[in-house]
Every structure is written in structure tokens, then in C-alpha cells.
Amino acid sequence: MFYQPDRNTGAGHGLPHNPFNAIVTPRPIGWISTRGSDGSDNLAPYSFFNAVSYFPPQVMFASTSAKPDRGDTKDSVANIRETGVFAVNIVSHALRDAMNQTSGPWRRDVDEFAVAGLEKGQCQTIDCGFVTASPATLECKMTQIVTLEGANNFMVIGEVVGIRMADDCIVDGMFDVTTFNPLSRLGYRDYATVTEVFSLNRPGES
């Protein structure tokens, strides 16, 4: 089949559910922790997330909706506008339920760390909390907030200024994802877990 998606609603496919997110999969999950200028902490997952450069290391995530108590966006972007920093917590299979709990439409004064029963640590290079149970955390300074086409669509780009890795995830000098099985987002309400990996040499490599 072929369809042209409506740029405002995504409609046009004639299916029971929008297939777009199911096509662009799997997507890593950026579990974004932020702290507002008033000291309040927030934690929320974003599946429009990825690394975008090596030197300097940079990541991005996109927020695509708004909350009534945050105007044109949600808590994460609103806090980053105020403070200019955020942390990306990597989601392991073991943290799947806690991550899902933090995805709720909680009020801006609600601390999702507490809602999900997560221990909170303090980042070293930025004023922000992080998930201590996460296998890795990227401490980031915002470099750009890009307004995207469509209502309430914002892309946040940050430079990674500090990286925390759990010691037991480092095997033979490499960060081994099979030690924690990262969670990825598929379409609809579906997720997948990385349980095994394989390597491919690029052309010309031995």
C-alpha cells in the first residue's frame, strides 16, 4: 500500500492505528531528567532520541506535545529552557516498568523519581538529578532548541559533557549492552529488548 500522511493528523493510511512509529523502529529511549529553576525534578522518556555526533559528542531528543500547565510544551523542554541542562538515562530491561510509570501526564510539581520509586543521584558536571540504577547516564548542556514544523514540536540538542557508566557494564574494556539489555521503542505500545548482538566488518576492514 501507499499513502500520503496528513501533515497535521497523520491520517490517510486507512488503518486502525497510525503505522509511522511502527515503521521507524527500533528507536532508543532517552529517559530525560531535568531540574527546573525552582529546584523541582522531572523525569520522562522520549523515543524520538538519538546520538548525532562524535566530536564533540552530541545527542538530541524531540518533544511533540504540550501540557496545560506548561504552555506550548512539556516539563522537560520547559525546564531546559530555564536551566540549559539535562541528563539522558539509558533504560535497561529491568527498568522498563519504572520508565513506563514516568511517562504519565504528571503535574509539573510531581517528582517522577518518587512516583516510580527510583533512587536519585546528583550529576557531577550539571545541576540535575539522574537515575542511579541506569546502566549509563549522559550529562548534557543544551546547545539548541529547534522549533520543528507542526504544533508543539521541539527538538533539543545537547553536548555531552559528562558520561557515567556502571562498572559491571564494562567488559574487556568495552561497554557491553548485553549486561543490561537496553530497551527500545517500537510502534503502538510495543517495545523490544536487545538480548544478543553480532558484528559486521565494513568493506576493506579485516
TrEMBL record:
GO molecular function terms listed in the Swiss-Prot or TrEMBL record: FMN binding; oxidoreductase activity, acting on the CH-NH group of donors, NAD or NADP as acceptor
InterPro entries per UniProt: Flavin_Rdtase-like_dom (IPR002563), Split_barrel_FMN-bd (IPR012349)
Signal sequence, start to end: none
SUPFAM superfamilies according to UniProt: FMN-binding split barrel
Residue stretches making up the Flavin reductase like domain: 22-177
Protein name listed in UniProt: NADH-FMN oxidoreductase RutF, flavin reductase (DIM6/NTAB) family
Organism lineage: Bacteria, Pseudomonadati, Pseudomonadota, Alphaproteobacteria, Rhodobacterales
